Amino acid sequence: MRFVRTAWLVVRKDLVIEARSREIVYTTLFFAVACVLVFAFGFVNEGRPVTDAAPGILWIAIAFSGTLALGRAFERERQSETLRALMMAPVDRPALYVGKLAGILLLLAVVEAIVVPLVALLFHAALFDRPWLLLALLAAGTTGFAAVGTLFAAMLVRARSRDVLLPVLLYPITIPVIIAGVRGTAALLQADVDVPMARAWLSMLVLFDVVFVTLALWTFEPLMTE
Amino acid sequence: MFMAAPFLIDGAPYESTMGLVQKIFYFHVPSAMTMFMSAIVCGVSSAIYLFKGRASADRLAVAAAELTSVFGVIVLVTGPLWARKAWGVWWVWDERITSTFVLWLIFNAYLLLRKYGGPGSEKLAAGLAVFGMANVPFVYWSVNVWRTLHPKTTVVPTLQAGMRGPFWFCVLAFLLFYVLALSARARLESRRAELEALYLAIEE
Predict the structure, then answer these.
(1) What does the alpha-carbon distance between residue B96 and residue A177 come to, in Å, rounded to a whole number?
(2) Domains of chain A: which residue ranges?
(3) Structure pTM?
């Protein structure tokens, strides 16, 4: 019970700060939209989008803006040394991790709520034919990405050149998430929808989430101890 | 052993369809095996360092990470050389190639983190290595479903008698070389730590 309460307090703190400044949500959102637009110039040929481009663009936009949001969220904690203060508080360390993770997930959910319809609109993708399966893929994929990302961003707070190191460390590790997300979404977008394939990728994403959230909870304590 | 290897490889029979190019296999496969072993060594010793805080495990992990990177380069260079001849292209996005490449990237990220992460980055790098090791089956599975073209590992037991000898000779040579390089590198690291401790002692 204490665990849930601590996590909730961390989430609430992040939400209150974000609700007052709206800094991360606006910058991340516009970055994601800009990302999609830049891809549009690369993948639209004579007014028609290249077939199969939509899932890749969607997931790359999510991964890039997710990295940005993670970096900003922890930069804020670093500037006023609040992460250290959190670490000194007499609470479960893993609860702090869960709190930060939930905050990032809420933020990315807002971003996805805008970016997914945008991609569907700009690339003529029938993303909403199977809304529940798509929602499950997005949720599982974002959780996996953010689970690894939150841990790495938190531990990089103490490191030098953290801005460039975060993507360098995060992208190789989250390659399975990107592949599963892109292929799963692509299976939903084919002319003949391949539901079993999408389900297979979804179950892989869920497995990834379970393994990496467990691993992160397990290593958070020794990693964050100086 | 490396002196003898070229003669043994020269003596091995030519493969019927590929001829001379097939000989690269004697270096490619052993370095790939060594690379994967090195990655496991790095992951396990990182986990020991992270949870037990033993500095010697950390030194072993650096040594293993560097060797993973080196053997990774050998694998990723010899692979395309062979593929150009066998498949007609330098690079294909198949499961083994891609997962080897990803693994290589992870361990280079580990080295970058250690080099540019500033003080305290050993622990962070150890965390990364643990994650990297846990990641291998996922990368393998996902790329497996995505694409497949590479010759299976089952090719090894079906080798002709004349090829088998040199092949296992090369595997052994690479493994011995690996152990030698690993222990030398770990010793260098521990000497460095001793030196550091001595400097600190003088200053005090």
Answers:
(1) 18
(2) 2-224
(3) 0.80
